[in-house]
Amino acid sequence: MNKKLLPVLALLGTLSVAGCSTGTPSGTEASSTEAGATAAGLEKVVVGSIPFAETATIQIAMNEGIFEEHGLEVELADAPGGGAGLIPAVMSGDLDITYSNYPSVLQAIDKGLPLSIIRENDRGGAQGIYVLSDGDIDELSDLKGKRVAVNGLGNIMEITSRSVLEEHGVTGVDFVEIPPAQMEASVENGNVDGAWLVEPFVTMATADDGLTKLVSAFEGTTENVPVAGWVTSAEFLNESPDTVNAFVDALDEATARAAEDKDLLNKTLARYTSISPDVIEQLNPIGFSVESDYEGLDTLNELMVKQGLISEPVDLEAVTHER
After folding, report:
1. Residues 177-182: contacts with CB under 8 Å, at least 24 apart
2. Which domains does the chain have, with CATH numbers?
């Protein structure tokens, strides 16, 4: 590994964990297996993922034999430190490809890491700022000077919230880091006044009218902002373009099936997440990116510059891979 990257890798420990997470991680075994041909003649690829509902795409590709059809044997692996360790693991060569939220990717590139975005994975859905149904906050202006929970400062939750609120003339909101699983209780207990909820917590929090959506996280400027995708190092892309293209082709097929076949999606979610079957049946549609066109990534790029999260716009043409 290039020694010049070491200080940059150290900084990555501060980057946000995946910003839009559906489901509770159940865990996978970490591995540092290198990519290469297997005994069956398949190309082995080690991929970093987190068991969110959005990553049902890769689970379907594995379980339904789609990767094998494209000549790949994919091994899922965790990284030390969880989601925040995925990008450093790609740079060290422990992972060949990883799932990541886009703000973390753009921040890493801004800090000098040679990363390539190879496929979009998911966009917005039911995410938004939720408040007590019978509370004192009835309109967006009531949030001025209030506290809103997000799962990490500087990630997709805060970025979209600030943009939407500013477009409605609301400033002075204090964003507080709280794990998604604790957000509903934090609102109900009065520790925060609102929370940026994702599934399955949207379904769980609104089932008995405890919380209600005050505003969508994806409207106005943020309406078409993508959330997360699949990333590799520029080195791996340059050395193994056919492998990367096969991975993308397999995900194209798996993403289409995830979006179209609800029974397959629900069966898959029940297998690898800890979301209960009853909640799975009621989940709002997940924003799978059937078309990977990177549309709206430039908007996120501009918002991150505006909010001081990156020093200058990332050259998106240089860091996005077109199949």
Report:
1. 177/149, 177/150, 177/151, 177/152, 177/153, 178/149, 178/150, 178/151, 179/151, 180/21, 180/151, 181/24
2. 3-124+226-319 (3.40.190.10), 128-222 (3.40.190.10)
